[in-house]
Design goal:
Shape: globular
Oligomer: single chain
Distance between the termini: 91 Å
Structural class: alpha+beta
Radius of gyration: 33 Å
Mean pLDDT: 75
Number of helices: 18
Number of domains: 4
Number of strands: 27
Strand content: 15-25%
Low-confidence stretches: 39-49, 66-78, 87-227, 593-598
Helix content: 25-40%
């Protein structure tokens, strides 16, 4: 009884008030331990993270060494601060905290439910430290009680877990498909990736699956970890269909010398991913490569066309009509003065190695290519647009390069305001008879001001009346607005390229600088009329996003593509001769040609090719025509030139990436064989790189045809 009374006395006894000195010692000890732990790391190397047990032991030892609980009074004083500090300490070095959720572990067929520790970002952590520490997977907490696979992972031992093992998430993991779970793990709560538990290789125990860890998240050993959510905006379009020459004898489109699609697809393949079909614009892949087409002899004729008919390598019953256009190449002494405005995106979304840093290196290369009398201005845009460099002669090269070097990212993206300011400067320094061009470099993420494609299109259409041309250069992935870039390039007398490496920047801005900067013709359109007496069907390969109405061909108010100095443009039709067993569309019962005038005129022609264009400083178009007859035909595919055969290999490659049915039975090895035989001299290695991409695509496609 006396024993109980003693406890009653203890329960009712008031806690002695601690002295000011004791309070100060406790507070200083806690702050000292916190500062010691958060002292900046060594400038090189990585500090090894500690496991939870190590953190607890170290914390407790520090508390005992400081003798913070020597008396009940101090124990009562510091209990709550120590509890809070303990939670902070255990999570220090990791951007995560506890939160609600659920977890289910299934092992050997038994499902065990338990309360988990769920991972979510700290809300107020320093972002730079957070991103650095998020890479330390040892600081990641695992849901609920430590499982066998968690303990083995801490010992760096490969693990095998039963099917459908779900690890932490906030919001809680959800099964989106058999064996797959979503997990939100990014520093800002966005989707970082998903976990899928995949079957083990042959020889593993029945019913088991292999798991690897990526920054604390379990993922399959035979699967590629899916990166952060992709927000690229790509225009969707249908592949050109086969058309009847009798019902629709006329095909009209704008030329396209853009190359963005090829470099974008190349990046995907080198990252081990087959490109999304809508990112593949076949004509841009064909026109990525330089070809030695026959060109004009004088600038008065800006380009020359060559048309060749040859057998189709993927269908013995059809033929290819190959249209090659070569632009006049302005020699160095003839190049007019250039007035260039660099419109550079420095918004927060550009803060990645393959964006602003690459952009700065690319434009440094371009400055090195310009003549001393050329003029450069620099406009940047983030939350607002601003002029970084007023019009400056390239003779002051150091001043221009310093302005580029000092660019830093930050803020939202007021792209429309930047375009307005860039055109204002270009018009202010306009050079009569010279080159006046805005060069927009961005990931395309416009989110302030006019942001819709239609609004931007109308603005660019109005600006092109000033005589200022436009080039668009895309950078980065995951946030690329390719659709917007294509829209403004196509409607601003412009071209579009995608720069994924410094080598690509050198190709576009140095090696191809003449064609990139100096236009020789604008609003270039092609119209082909097929003779239904000779051609039953036809199919234009590519140019889906460049299609024009038949009446647009003669309408000089309708915009089309431009051709730069030395540019080559290639268009390829697959045609089905009349009477060929490859014909897919039945003849019309009442569709026979009239014979009242003695039959069809020009019956010996396959087709009639018309090209309409304007000179850069003119508003009235000129016309070039070419009849296509048997004289344009070669007897075999091997009799075609090496450049023609290589361009057709690229066309087949692009069609296979798009999943075009016409080349479904044409295997990757055959494409590689044709391209290898037609590789030629290849001074810059572009064609050799193409061969490697064909091999990559074949491997990623699983060796399918």
């Amino acid at each position: 009884m006396a024993h109980d009374d003693d406890f009653d006395v203890l329960r009712t006894m008031p806690v002695p008030r601690p002295s000011d000195a004791a309070r100060a010692r406790a507070f200083d000890a806690a702050l000292g331990a916190y500062d010691l732990e958060n002292r900046s790391a060594a400038p090189q190397g990585s500090v090894a993270g500690m496991r939870l047990t190590e953190r607890i032991n170290k914390l407790w030892s520090g508390i005992m060494d400081k003798k913070l609980i020597a008396t009940p009074a101090i124990a009562g004083l510091v209990a709550l601060p120590i509890a809070g500090y303990t939670a902070l300490y255990l999570l220090d070095g990791s951007p995560y905290a506890f939160g609600p959720g659920e977890a289910i572990t299934e092992t050997d067929g038994k499902r065990v439910e338990h309360e988990p520790l769920v991972v979510e970002p700290k809300k107020k952590a320093d972002q730079a430290n957070l991103d650095e520490r998020a890479q330390d997977s040892d600081d990641m907490l695992v849901a609920g009680q430590p499982t066998a696979e968690t303990r083995q992972r801490e010992e760096s031992v490969p693990v095998v877990v039963a099917p459908e093992t779900t690890l932490l998430a906030r919001p809680a993991p959800k099964m989106t498909a058999p064996g797959e779970a979503e997990a939100v793990m990014s520093s800002e709560g966005g989707a970082l990736g998903r976990m899928a538990v995949a079957p083990m290789p042959s020889g593993a125990a029945s019913g088991t699956r292999s798991v690897q860890f990526y920054d604390g998240i379990a993922a399959p050993s035979d699967q590629v970890f899916v990166p952060e959510e992709n927000r690229d905006r790509i225009e969707q379009f249908d592949t050109n269909p086969v058309k009847s020459a009798l019902e629709s004898p006329v095909s009209t489109f704008s030329i396209d010398v853009d190359t963005a699609s090829y470099s974008f697809a190349r990046r995907s393949l080198k990252e081990g991913i087959l490109p999304q079909a809508d990112t593949v614009r076949v004509e841009e892949m064909i026109n990525y490569f330089p070809y030695d087409w026959t060109g004009p002899e004088a600038a008065t004729d800006p380009f020359k066309s060559t048309v060749t008919i040859m057998p189709t390598p993927w269908n013995e019953h059809t033929k290819l009509m190959h249209v090659a256009i070569q632009g006049y190449d302005i020699v160095q002494t003839e190049q007019p003065r250039a007035n260039l405005v660099f419109l550079l995106d420095v918004s927060g979304s550009m803060n990645e190695p393959d964006k602003l840093p690459l952009l700065k290196s690319a434009f440094r290369l371009l400055v090195g290519k310009l003549n001393p009398e050329d003029t450069v201005s620099i406009v940047t845009y983030a939350g607002d647009a601003g002029t970084v460099l007023m019009p400056t002669k390239v003779s002051e090269r150091a001043k221009i390069l310093d302005a580029i070097d000092n660019l830093t990212p930050g803020g939202s993206t007021a792209g429309a305001a930047g375009i307005e300011e860039a055109y204002r400067l270009a018009e202010q320094s306009f050079i009569e008879g010279g080159i006046n061009r805005v060069m927009l470099a961005t990931d395309g993420d416009f989110n302030v001001g006019q942001t819709s494609d239609d609004d931007l299109k109308r603005m660019i259409e109005a600006k092109r009346e000033s005589g200022v041309f436009l080039s668009v250069f895309g950078f980065g992935r995951g946030n690329l607005n390719d659709q917007m870039m294509q829209t403004i390039a196509q409607n601003g007398n412009g071209t579009a390229a995608y720069i994924d490496t410094l080598a690509e920047a050198e190709k576009v801005l140095v090696e191809d600088s003449s064609s990139t900067l100096f236009p020789i013709a604008k609003d270039v359109k092609i119209q082909v009329e097929f003779n239904p007496a000779a051609v039953a069907e036809y199919r234009l390969i590519g140019y889906e996003t460049r299609a024009l109405a038949r009446e647009d061909f003669n309408n000089d108010k309708v915009d089309a593509g431009e051709i730069g100095s030395g540019h080559s443009v290639t268009a390829i039709y697959e045609i089905t001769p009349k009477g060929s067993p490859a014909q897919m569309i039945d003849d019309l019962r009442y569709g026979a040609a009239s014979t009242d005038n003695g039959g069809v005129q020009n019956a010996d022609e396959y087709a009639f090719v018309k090209i309409r264009y304007k000179l850069p400083d003119e508003d009235v178009s000129k016309l070039i025509t070419t009849p296509v007859t048997k004289a344009n035909e070669v007897s075999s595919f091997g009799a075609a030139s090496a450049d023609q055969r290589f361009s057709i290999a690229v066309a087949a490659f692009g069609q296979k990436l798009r999943g075009t049915s016409q080349v479904a039975g044409f295997d990757w090895d055959r494409i590689n064989e044709i391209a290898t035989a037609a590789r030629g001299t290849d001074p810059f290695g572009y064609r050799a790189e193409f061969l490697s991409l064909v091999r990559l695509a074949s491997a990623l496609d699983g060796g399918k045809q």
